[in-house]
Amino acid sequence: MKNLFIQRIYDAPIDIIGDIHGEIDALQNLIQILGYDRDGNHKENRKLIFVGDLCDRGLDSVAVIKLVKHLVDNGNAQCVLGNHELNILIHSKREGNGWFFGSPHEDDDKKFNSKEASLHDRKMIIHFLSTLPLVLESEKIRVVHACWDNASIASLMKDKSKSVKEAYDLFTKRIEEHLTKSGIAQKARKEELGYEFQLKDIYSKVPFLKNLAHKHVVEQMNNPVKVVTSGTEAFADDMFFAGGKWRMVKRLKWWDQYESDIPVVVGHYWRNFNKREKKRDLFQHIDPLHWFGAKKNVFCIDYSVGKRYEDRQHQREFSNKLVALRFPENYLVQEDGIILKIKNTLNDHLV
């Protein structure tokens, strides 16, 4: 079963930590609260699992990655690759990663105040991220950053690439050839150039650009590296503005079609305890303390710590906490020591 992209998860009690996004203080606090020493040892022989998105937006992504690397190197932690780490590996400049590529860049114009990586840091980070799997699994539990998709994981199992970047580039090349041959790429480019500035202006009126949307869906759904790190997508019902531009493609609730008995834990989707804050559509009818999906055995452990930069900008108390899921005990622990009981539980035979 073990290969470069899919690896076996620890056969031990585990603590699965959600997206950290450079918040080193939150991470150090949570690890201590969970009972680990600075090397990741635990008196009950527990192990740490990270769901990816270690970096971007927070104050010190370098320190977070160094700490996680230290824990992994000691054999006390495992970590899957998230879409933010993937962006670094494929040299994609996105919002919040100016700490690595140099800020400000085109998509990094917010005031994140992140510590910049040195040349030595960048080399270390690239090497470490290149060693991370995309999927962790056993007969008891599965961990992936964004999406458990059987077809994508089967493709990754067969792939003989020597690195995630190599696999990503190979799939991307095949997709580009298809888009060019079909004429979709040229039509999409024409639409994009026609609305180049309006697409980044929330006050502009932009029509639904069907060829551009088609291109985006094909690029996402035919690249298994993208699917497992950022999810499945389809045409949106209506245009919406998010992440600094108008979008025509929406995320899908893949968990409603997940039929396996093995539970899956993901990050990525910005879950939230704050009832005053408008929920994202994906979790509009899902309690923040519930397992969900077709068999009620999918759990998102990302509780929006990546928004702390907004709290700093407004000089207000942090509205979100870093959280760990204790498995198989099936309860949550916050960085401040508060224990949260999950309201619906997995079937006894699963835990």
From TrEMBL:
InterPro entries attached to this UniProt entry: Ap4A_hydrolase, Calcineurin-like_PHP, Metallo-depent_PP-like, Ser/Thr-sp_prot-phosphatase
Q: Which residues form the Calcineurin-like phosphoesterase domain?
A: 13-113
Gene3D superfamilies reported for this sequence = 3.60.21.10
On the tree of life, the source organism's domain of life is Bacteria
Q: Which PANTHER family match?
A: BIS(5'-NUCLEOSYL)-TETRAPHOSPHATASE PRPE [ASYMMETRICAL] (PTHR42850:SF7), METALLOPHOSPHOESTERASE (PTHR42850)
Q: What is this protein called?
A: Metallophosphoesterase
